[in-house]
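Teaching note: in complex prediction, the entire set of molecules is handled at once rather than each chain in isolation. The prompt given to students was simply: 'Predict the structure of this complex.' The entities are:
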Amino acid sequence: MTQARTMTDGGYNFAYLDEQTKRMIRRAILKAVAIPGHQVPFGSREMPLPYGWGTGGIQVTASIIGLADVLKVIDQGADDTTNAVSIRRFFARTAGVATTEAMADATIIQTRHRIPETALRDDQIIVYQVPIPEPLRWLEPREAETRKMHGLADYGVMHVKLYEDIATYGHIETSYDYPVLVNGRYLTAPSPIPKFDNPKMHEMAALQLFGAGREKRIYAIPPYTRVESLDFEDHPFAVQTWEARCAICGAEDSFLDEVITDDHGGSMFVCSDTDHCGRRVADGHRGDGE
Amino acid sequence: MTDAAPQDAPLLSARGITHSYGARIGCRDIAFDLWPGEVLGVVGESGSGKTTLLNCLSAQMMPSSGKLTYRLRTGDQADVYALTEAERRMLMRTDWGFVHQNPRDGLRMGVSAGANVGERLMAVGARHYGAIRDQVTDWLGRVEMDLDRIDDLPSQFSGGMQQRVQIARNLVSGPRLVFMDEPTGGLDVSVQARLLDLLRGLTNDLGLSAVIVTHDLAVARLLSHRLMVMRRGEVVEQGLTDQVLDDPQHAYTQLLVSSVLQT
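The expected output is the structure of the full assembly:
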């Protein structure tokens, strides 16, 4: 699975970005780590892929990656989707680093929409690709006002959103990008991961970095930091559950994707984390499907 | 009465409130005391500085000069213009209310009536959905809203209903002082009458203090105990409402009073 270090694309600086840019981004990251959950502006660069495909995450990864690092990239939990494959190849070419699909081997994991099922270690860093870093954006369109709200920890309006969910659906319907309070202070968008993954952010051993390229923001959650998902006392936070098991590996405790198998309404549920699923199959676990 | 403490100090005390937009005067040298339970009406023609004054009094705008003192629940006197932004916001959402002329300015149009009314409660830390819901229901009932509309968006309401939601949204936190900018502006007369009835009932029952800006003398007569008449940014006459309206002293007030159809 792990690809050894390969040739470097000689036309670019190591990891594509020039050293001054990396330095600027590292300063933003340091500040972000110092103020957990606070969005730090940075001079986001044009990257050779469109906004929304992970320009923020790529810049963060490019700034922290070194020759000894082993990179894993996942998209919706999978290692083999277009976005993940392209970004992995990008760093293999421009930095010549080793890449992997195995959680155990990776030192940097860049992710979109998922946190791996396997618990992260304290020698790993997870980099999230973030489309909208501002959790208050849909409630308050003015940037100057949302900054002031963060400054004053004026977050009542976020509960208005959750109230609205309960009033409309009878329960908190928000199922991804579920707002969290980091270290008891800053309201933070966990990027569009399912709320299933929110509990994994709490006291995570690994450093969590978030990059939003179009919105030009970086934020971070240092290792072992308190991350609470907002809720009401009588409507506590709860994660998704499934009645099905993974059709391939039989897992009951992982995040499942429903895959349409034919046009007669047939479908099956499989783990969204392909590495996790594959490892379970290798260990002899089997599902009912196939 | 919301306050059992000795009421020997005014609730709100304004001295020398002056605001100018460049060379143009918004309001000049306004001074008054507002006592607990008192409703002060501010009347005057368009452009006389009523809204500027109201924005200054409610600290939504910093006047060019002047001093505003507010007596907190603790009994301490607060210099409103010297408060920090955080303290001022806290005051705005607990002790004060602001009813805009256009309910769209005072409501969140994207969320339901219930969420609008509940926002202040959540902003000060209420985290029990059932309890918030009960209070919201109670207040929507008090402003005579149909309770089955609680989950509808304000944009689906008539102007009069929006205005009532806005009033409930402001009163839910049990404020002691409410600012109102033409609360019945833009409503037809029958809806106006019911809204005025409602407001009068609420101010009487709750012992609210209020500053009401209006150009409608009938509204002023119905709601306010005391009246300030403004013209070109200055107060030309003030006194008890009936006194000012029945026996106007200043030429402008006389003109204003005589401009209204007498029945």
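Point out the following to students. The interface with chain B takes residues 139, 148, 152, 154, 156-157, 159-161, 163-164, 166-168, 231-235 of chain A (CB under 8 Å). Chain A has a mean pLDDT of 93.
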